[in-house]
């Protein structure tokens, strides 16, 4: 069996083998695809995933493969060694606009899963025994509502309750920290820093807000540079929210850099230590950017994939390479957009770009060095 015999919905490369891919298909089958032999092996039928007409996302952390309905309610984790499947689910509250994201982390020799269970609740589960490591009660209750004067705001008693919609998660290289790329009402996007050890006892209120140029644009491009540093790609300020003096004073910027060690615990805020301007992504009519951002620690470069194709810069924002032909694009079959959004993905550990081509039923892989050499660019 090979890829020509299945209807692929999502694909991700292995964290242990650059020739091995996890593939999820319309028959609810999870497969392993070996590119070196062009062979496909079924691992499991994952009946818990039901929204096959919406984007599916895969995660590969040997010996586990995770599957989520990206804008749905269901998720699963499959153990490659045993074949066992664990099913997970989150609450249905604005799930259609909040990514159902998961993160694998290693702690004290155990593999843990960080996952959403409610719109404002993250949990951590030990995958080896299924034990929930973050049990808690969450509640909100108005204080003496009968005494509140008309036109005044209510006051609440909150127990582990934060008005925050969890969305895309990004884990640090050594698994100690997480970026939560979510949002709050009105709505406004809000990235929060999570220290895993602190979160195990402090939960949502132990997280720290990141200060950046935000708006109505969550799940924005961001990347860890190392265990302490990360970078966020930011929007252009909208004239609808800033007056001309503020816009004139605004420094041109597209990337903001941060260090966990700079967190102000008293204010529960983190401000950037460096701001650079580099044209990685285009802005839409609202000044928003979209795409994916990766950091290659060996080459010490940032790789952006979006509507400008592939753009590579150093950490000072200097452009080193661009290829406008490698776009993040929707592939179509018989005139219709085929689900999900198959796009170029970069895997920094293997230094490869890869993309599943639905029309050709094949995975294309391009090495970092091969790409830049072929285009006569030296880094």
Q: Measure the end-to-end span.
A: 40 Å
**Helix share bin:** under 10%
**How confident overall, as mean pLDDT?**
91
Tally of individual helices: 3
Low-confidence stretches: 331-340
> Which percent range describes the beta-strand content?
35-45%
Radius of gyration: 21 Å
Look at the helices and sheets and give the structural class. Answer: mainly beta
Strand order, sheet with most strands: 14-15-16-17-21
General description of the model:
The protein has 379 residues and is mainly beta. The protein has a domain at 1-119 and 121-161. It has three helices and 31 strands. The protein has helices at 196-202, 244-249, 368-374; strands at 8-13, 20-25, 29-34, 39-45, 56-61, 64-69, 74-79, 85-89, 102-107, 110-118, 121-126, 139-142, 156-159, 165-171, 177-184, 188-195, 208-210, 222-224, 229-233, 255-259, 269-270, 274-276, 292-296, 301-306, 309-313, 319-323, 332-333, 336-337, 345-347, 352-357, 362-367. The strands form nine sheets. The protein has a five-stranded mixed β-sheet. It has a four-stranded antiparallel β-sheet with strand order 1-2-3-4, with no helix packed on it. The protein has a four-stranded antiparallel β-sheet with strand order 5-6-7-8, with no helix packed on it. β3 (29-34) and β4 form a beta hairpin. It is globular and about 70 Å long.
């Amino acid at each position: 069996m090979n890829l020509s015999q299945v209807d692929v919905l999502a694909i991700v490369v292995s964290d242990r083998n650059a020739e091995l891919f996890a593939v999820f298909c319309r028959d609810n089958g999870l497969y392993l695809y070996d590119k070196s032999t062009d062979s496909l092996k079924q691992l499991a039928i994952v009946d818990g995933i039901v929204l096959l007409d919406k984007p599916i996302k895969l995660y590969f952390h040997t010996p586990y493969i995770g599957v989520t309905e990206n804008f749905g309610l269901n998720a699963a984790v499959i153990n490659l060694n045993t074949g066992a499947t664990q099913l997970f689910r989150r609450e249905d509250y604005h799930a259609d606009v909040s990514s159902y994201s998961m993160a694998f982390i290693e702690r004290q020799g155990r593999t843990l899963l960080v996952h959403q269970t409610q719109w404002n609740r993250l949990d951590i589960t030990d995958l080896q025994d299924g034990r929930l490591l973050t049990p808690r009660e969450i509640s909100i209750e108005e204080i003496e509502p009968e005494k509140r004067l008309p036109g005044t705001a209510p006051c609440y008693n909150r127990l582990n309750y934060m008005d925050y919609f969890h969305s895309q998660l990004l884990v640090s290289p050594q698994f100690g920290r997480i970026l939560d790329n979510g949002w709050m009402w009105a709505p406004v996007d809000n990235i929060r820093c999570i220290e895993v050890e602190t979160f195990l006892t402090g939960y949502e209120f132990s997280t720290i807000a990141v200060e950046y140029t935000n708006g109505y644009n969550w799940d924005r491009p961001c990347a860890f540079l190392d265990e302490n540093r990360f970078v966020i790609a930011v929007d252009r300020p909208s004239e609808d929210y800033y007056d001309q003096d503020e816009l004139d004073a605004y420094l041109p910027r597209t990337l903001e850099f941060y260090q966990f060690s700079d967190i102000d615990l008293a204010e529960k805020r983190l401000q950037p230590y460096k701001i650079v301007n580099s044209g990685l992504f285009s802005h839409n009519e609202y000044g928003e950017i979209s795409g994916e951002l990766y950091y290659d620690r060996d080459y010490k470069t940032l790789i952006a994939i979006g509507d400008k194709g592939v753009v590579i810069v150093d950490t000072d924002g200097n452009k080193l390479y661009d290829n406008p032909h490698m776009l993040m694009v929707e592939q179509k079959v018989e005139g219709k957009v085929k689900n999900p959004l198959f796009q170029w993905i970069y895997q920094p550990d293997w230094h490869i770009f890869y993309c599943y081509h639905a029309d050709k039923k094949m995975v294309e892989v391009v090495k970092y060095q091969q790409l830049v050499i072929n285009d006569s660019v030296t880094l």
